[in-house]
């Protein structure tokens, strides 16, 4: 007898046998004869009953997922144990002591079990579990959920091991963490990169950040950082303060969450967010699911790529309802001169939010009657002295000065000179204001 791709000899029961069992279970099945040396000669086992018990217990405990249903044992004459291994249905099988990584996963190469590559492991998982990334087993099984648990607690939502199977964090069949668990875990390997640029061509950096960890933690930290980039133009009208943000907070939140929950996590690249004075661009990996067009998204049709992740974000009130996020973003820009833009390629989805305070060429500013009267006067006469404003508005000097200062701060008019020579002139930006 000689060893082949389907036959392996072992003279004694040892831990090395488990590699052979893993390799056969992963790669077409085979037989191990224990009590036969490499030359094919019989080397009877001593206490065969004790060795048999040691072998069966070892295969049960040393290999995951459970492979015992694919293993058949036969005691043969001459003190030989025949172990017949069928190809398993929940590959890859691996050594528990090494984990689900190349050093723990084996296939047959000739008459020898050899470690596989990381890509081969991914392909085995994909073939066994299907093509839904979040539902397949995670290559990393040593996961913690500190950040995730904190977010659940802040939202008064139960989270613990008793919820893992229900949420899809753990596979009920094999009691292993899924890729959804990886995304929610502190060990998440996907990141969000934000770059702030000083120019409209996105070539000169002002700042850049990368956010890692649980996607829930990334969501919070990225939104907080984007809010630092979101300038507030405030105008005081009498006792009333009016705030005009560059970007509506709800639109920022919806755009960020949309990029996180709908990206294709089977690719390792990061979500990219580019910020400049004119716009924010959210670019995520993965185009629209097959059959959908951008117009379908605008009509509220939703086909989540990551259904379980979407459900968790919905549980945590990070999204209100399926398929409404994009429409709510566009609704926020109802009165803005520029509208958000969607750019889709086969492998990416980009959502562009215009800066509402610089849309067109000027600041967005809600005009009251007095401010509009000043702009109309300046359009007609070109300039105005402080006395002209008092007479036009029938107000005292202090009120005329305060209103003119507010409009100048908002970029609607310019103040030239000082004292008795001070004059107010129209700024070109006034052509783009909303009344």
What can you tell me about this protein's structure?
The protein has 3 domains: 7-122, Methyltransferase, Cobalt-precorrin-4 Transmethylase, Domain 2 (2-Layer Sandwich); 192-354, Heat Shock Protein 90 (2-Layer Sandwich), CATH 3.30.565; 369-432, Arc Repressor Mutant, subunit A (Orthogonal Bundle), CATH 1.10.10.10. The chain has a 6-stranded mixed sheet with strand order 12-11-15-16-18-17, with helices on one face. The chain has a 4-stranded mixed sheet with strand order 1-2-5-4. A 3-stranded antiparallel sheet has the order 19-21-20. The termini are far apart. 32% of the residues lie in helices and 22% in strands. It is built from 14 helices and 21 strands. Residues 429-435 have low confidence and may be disordered. Helix 8 runs antiparallel to helix 11 (325-332). It has 435 residues and is α+β, with helices and mostly antiparallel strands.
Summarize the structure in short.
By secondary structure, the protein is an alpha+beta fold. It folds into 3 domains: 7-122, Methyltransferase, Cobalt-precorrin-4 Transmethylase, Domain 2, CATH 3.30.950.30; 192-354, Heat Shock Protein 90; 369-432, Orthogonal Bundle (Arc Repressor Mutant, subunit A), CATH 1.10.10.
